[in-house]
Amino acid sequence: MINVKEAVGPGDVVSARSALKDVVRQTPLEYDALLSDRHQCQIYLKREDLQVVRSFKLRGAYHFLSRRSRDELDRGVVCASAGNHAQGVAYSCRLLQVQGKIFMPTTTPNQKVNQVARFGGSYVEIVLTGDTFDTSFAEAMRVCERERKLFVHPFDDPDVIAGQGTVGLEIIEQFSGSIDYLFVGIGGGGLAAGLGTYLKKISPMTKIIGVEPAGAPAMHMSLHQNERVMLRELDKFVDGAAVQQVGTLTLEICKQVLDDVVLVPEGKVCSTILQLYNENAIVVEPAGALALAALDFYRNELKGKNVVCVISGGNNDIDRMSEIKERSLIYEGLKHYFIINFPQRAGALREFINGVLTEQADITRFEYIKKNNRDSGPALVGIELKERDEYPLLIERMERNQVDYMEINKDPNLFHLLI
User: Catalytic site residue 305?
Assistant: First the structure.
């Protein structure tokens, strides 16, 4: 059993702040009037998306490296990351003039890969390998051992955790009253463990709510089973928080400092990203939106309370926005896909449009190949609605017009295959 109190304590977070004072920005804690009015409470956003590398990860990476000897650093460093930790390590390598080899999944958005190259310059070598963080991590560890380099863990290290904990220290300094709830996203658990270590000592009444994507519930399952769980299946969409297994140390700390872990559907995360962009002009990545995406799941408990949400990252690739919008529409019940068997005769499509669709519905996708010697032919049809309540009426009109259809949204395997 790990002695958590010996591993990381509030004093370590204070020491980390001293080491970081000339490197990281003290990001603002901003009151959000629109969100506060919507949820009938006082909501403040800790803007780590405005950090030097657009995420909190610089704090842990630089603090870890700053505490190593020059001999250790001169051997070179290795890290594995889905993007944000890599940027923090790359930035630190350039500041400390250390050579770094950075392993990232092949699925990492180009924006993050390019940022790593920009921050690290000639001090870093980027290696894209594997489809997930965990496969990149395994390869990084093999290379690290073979080449006798220093490994910079993305979350499961006391110095990394203490560095991330400076987010919590800043929040306490910036907020004059009592904090009732603090929402923080979880991947490997470094940020939650770090800020939780400090907050629970200084503000023990604050309820700290961890937030994970529903498709990557590693911390939720590990807390439930009281041991580290290796996920067999993983939705990689929230790439900054999609890990198959949380850290040994982070799990032990989170057992003590977290009051709850909320699982948020990836579609809800997408809706939150679009909402923040449209209403607040804030650009966040999927992992960065987790904390805010959980607010609706705590709506009744938050009324009249002081609430802090950590926006943990803003490294979003603009090329992902079409997918983000699509996932949001599906989650909100506004986008539906069907396989429809149309009679192979003239006027069949016109009858469908006139009999089934209204001004509240629009065809956004239509794929159909006419085949000879068939009475009917299947078409993939995507329909976007203006209101969620229009869906049962759409189904009713299809039934009334005797449309031969299959709902793809309700078949996960078929949906992922076709959409």
Answer: no
Catalytic residue chosen out of the listed positions 55, 222, 312, 328: 312
**SS (HEC) of 6-67:** HHCCHHHHHHHHHHHCCCCCCCCEEECHHHHHHHCCEEEEEEHHHCCCCECHHHHHHHHHHC
Please identify which of the residues 46, 57, 112, 268 carries the catalytic annotation.
57
The two tokens of residue 136 are: 């990149």
Order across the sheet with 29-31: list the strands: 29-31, 42-47, 306-311, 181-185, 207-213, 260-264
In tens, the pLDDT along 250-262 reads 999 999 999 999 9
Q: In this predicted structure, which of 21-35, 132-146, 219-233, 304-318 has the lowest mean pLDDT? A: 132-146
| Residue 57 is among the residues annotated as catalytic for this protein | yes
pTM of this prediction exceeds 0.85: yes
DSSP 63-102: HHHHTS-HHHHHT-EEEE-SSHHHHHHHHHHHHHT--EEE
The Cα 82–Cα 237 span in angstroms is: 11
